Amino acid sequence: MMWLTPSESEALRLSLDVATLSVAGSLPPAIALAWVLTRYRFVGRTLLDALVHLPLVLPPVVVGYVLLVLFGIRGVIGSWLEKAFGIELVFTRNGAALATAVMSFPLMVRAIRISLENVDRGLEEAARTLGARGLDRFATITLPLMLPGILAGTITAFSAALGEFGAVITFVSNIPGETRTLPLALYTVLQQPGGEHAAARLACLSLALGLGGLLLSEWLTRRLRRMLGR
Amino acid sequence: MMLTVAAAKRRGTFALDVRFELPTPGVVALFGRSGCGKSTVINIIAGLLRPDSGHVHLDDTVLLDTQRRVDVPPERRRIGYVFQDTRLFPHLSVAANLRYAEKRAVGTPYVDLAAVTSLLDLTALMNRRTHQLSGGERQRVAIGRALLTQPRLLLLDEPLAALDEARREEVLPYLETLRDHLAVPMVYVTHDFAEVLRLATHIVLMETGSVTAKGTVGEMSLNPRLRSIIGPDEVGAIIDGVVLGVDSSSSLTRVRVGHGELNVQATGLAVGTALRVQLLARDIIVSTHIPQHLSVRNSLAGIVTSIHGDVDDSDLITIDIGAEEIMARVTKAATRELSLRPGIEAWALVKSVSLRGHAFAARPR
């Protein structure tokens, strides 16, 4: 990208990488969780629901701190991951993806859940009478009908992931080329004297990305709706 | 071949308690007013709803037995279901909807995709999306889709209720074809008596959660409980007659009804065709002498078997015309003046005969 400086394009690429990784990783559990929360009634369902939504109301710094406690080198899960698989999360790109995934997870679950609630159970019943068993039925009927919601959730979560700041900087710090995503880069230049111009450029870039994502989401959703005949 | 259903279910203040057995093949109409529990019954047969207690047997197969803890899930019951709202899959084309069923069919196939598309005239619709179809077309696709599962039994839940009169006429002949050519046993839920007359071989009458009467359409046409539901103007014997001959000069067809004979306005029917006729009680005049010098052409001789009080100071006179019974509505004054009573000879003068389509004659598959 000719019109971007090397550090800007590095931050952009890193942001896209982190957001992609975070969305790809959180999509399957988001679908599973939306399914459980929509289709099952069990003790602790409300608590689980609240837990999923917690990142929406907590200060991002708190989320970053909790991640540090759990996934840090001496954290319960972090030390195990290190020993068993050699995976390090703190101060790494993967860690940044984890932090953004946790932060954007509620948005994703919410969108998928709404689409699942709108799936006509009658169509699933019809599929049953046609001989479709559980997983077959989910893959051929429920999932395709949920697609608009899954898409909307994915794009919203992706856009939010591009802009995640607090949890990322708390958990994985601000390392150029590794964890310095667009918002972190913007924050960094703002700390330097005479960085106003660079900050404005990065802000415009973020704006363009966000707007593009929302427009794309709207367009895709409309197309899918038409395909489903609504 | 037999379908046995016994089910009890309580939902809030509504209690369902039904028990009936039906021979298959044939078309059983589950008939009754809206909200009497008809759909609940077929959902239980399909396995989409579990009764508190009961059992469902189809031939030798136990599909449900709450006592023995048997409950075959709907996807393994091999029962086709045509829903009132069609439930076609909106993300699939017509062809893909049909293939969805075809791919998952088990058991001996008796009808293939080509046969279904030609039987239901679906060829021109195959590449359409389901939301581009008319109501009648949607229902035809839904019927085809259900058939392609090679069902042992086909359930239809008011498949024509959402259609207007013209669209109904568009779909009904296809259902007759299904009944006559594929001999698929069907359970047909409806609250429209005209559909019962066109399609059914048997009627199970439901009122507020229970079966109050059941029998062949002919038997049931004389049933007082059914009379109370369909209303006095629709009351009349329904008889499956046989075409004896056609008078080409007058476009009249002679039909054997019981031991008598009726002339019916119809052409193009082969001798031997089974024909269903309806003789409305209000269209029949009773005479105690051999009728002469009358404009009415059709008369049937018989013996009065019973007299029941009916609406508006009238009596329903049941007359045995040999192997069949018919009903006539006369005023109570007429009953007295003619001294009508069980056992006396009478002649029924039939003012008009309604044809109700071809009667079902089971053919081997």
Protein architecture, described:
- The complex is a heterodimer of chains A (230) and B (365).
- Chain A has 230 residues and is mainly α.
- Chain A has ten helices and no strands.
- In chain A, helix 2 packs across helix 5, helix 3 runs parallel beside helix 8 and helix 9 packs antiparallel against helix 10.
- Chain B is of the alpha+beta class and 365 residues long.
- Chain B is built from nine helices and 21 strands.
- In chain B, the strands form four sheets. Chain B has a six-stranded mixed β-sheet with strand order 7-8-9-3-10-11, sandwiched between helices. Chain B has a five-stranded antiparallel β-sheet with strand order 2-1-4-5-6, covered by helices on one side. A five-stranded antiparallel β-sheet of chain B has the order 14-13-12-15-21.
- At the A-B interface, helix 6 and helix 7 of A face strand 7 and helix 2 of B.
CATH topology of the largest domain in chain B: Rossmann fold
- Which topology of chain A does CATH recognise? MetI-like fold
Gyration radius over CA of chain A: 20 Å
CA(first)-CA(last) distance of chain A: 40 Å
Low-confidence stretches of chain A: none
Helices of chain B, by number, come to 9
Q: What value does the Rg of chain B take, in angstroms?
A: 22 Å
Helical content band of chain A: over 70%
Total number of strands of chain B: 21
Q: Quickly name the level 1 CATH class of the largest domain in chain B.
A: Alpha Beta
Strand content of chain B: 35-45%
Mean pLDDT of chain B: 88
